Amino acid sequence: MSNQQNPTDTPAFYIQNLPIFGDTILAPMDGFSDSPYRRLARRFGSALSYTEFINARDVLNGHPHLHQRISYSKEERPLVLQIFDNNPADLLKAAIRLRQCDPDVIDINLGCSAKSVVGRGAGAGLLCQPEKVAQIFRSLSQALDIPVTAKIRLGWDEHHRNHLEIARIIEDNGGKMVAVHGRTRAQDYHHRADWDAIAEVKQALSIPVIGNGDIHTAADINRLLKHTACDAVMIGRAAIGHPWIFERMERSQVTPLMLFETMRLHLDAMLQFYDEKSGLILFRKHVHNYLKGRDIPSALKHRLLTSNEPQDFIELLARALEIPV
User: Which sequence positions are flagged as catalytic?
Assistant: First the structure.
């Protein structure tokens, strides 16, 4: 397991004046990239920690679970708080309030394709409103003393691909980095990601560009970097249950003992961050991904996924992976 990069090493790139050590980044994923998993990904080499997206309305009006979204530990730094809304004024007020949490970066979500988000004109819905994007980045970059960045898609659909326009607007109005998911909103997570379009954004901008989309294996990381010349690669679904991808390891290289020790470490972090009952229940969605490709009897896997006691889960996991405990 890798440690975080030595600060004396040469940065891969800078977000304004913030040095970034490494060229792989865990993507913000609702329900997955919480503080426990961000910490784990950082230990394996993820260069940045993006929070799950934060609703600006929750920041301004209060929400019972907001503290879990904005909580982080020092080992997660550099820490990016990602927010979304369709109202430039509310985004500004939320960003100023979140600045009190001392993040390293504020990121605006322009890529979420969920109906509940785009239906109110937020996330990828903002791609249809370039003038709002300009207003958002102009006001936030002027008001904040930390970098403001964005995660975007290629556009609303194949007939409205405006990734170059949006990316240039972000840079021209003070944005310091752009992460590009190589699909439109209409494509969601279907169809092949367009790496050529990501390369176009990289060629058009002078700020760092992060490529995202169709990273399935560790080998894909270098392929995307070579194809697009991006500064780093953002990894989403392929990192769920496989933090070793940040070390450029394939799933086939992960031994049962490595898997057991990492799952136990992750579970312990979940239990500490949430509570014993909630932590184990929330961990279950990771278990299926950790065990992907492993030949485990279905009855035993079912017991694992329905276990209500952490110690019982650990004993069942050891049996499933044939690890003596």
Answer: 112
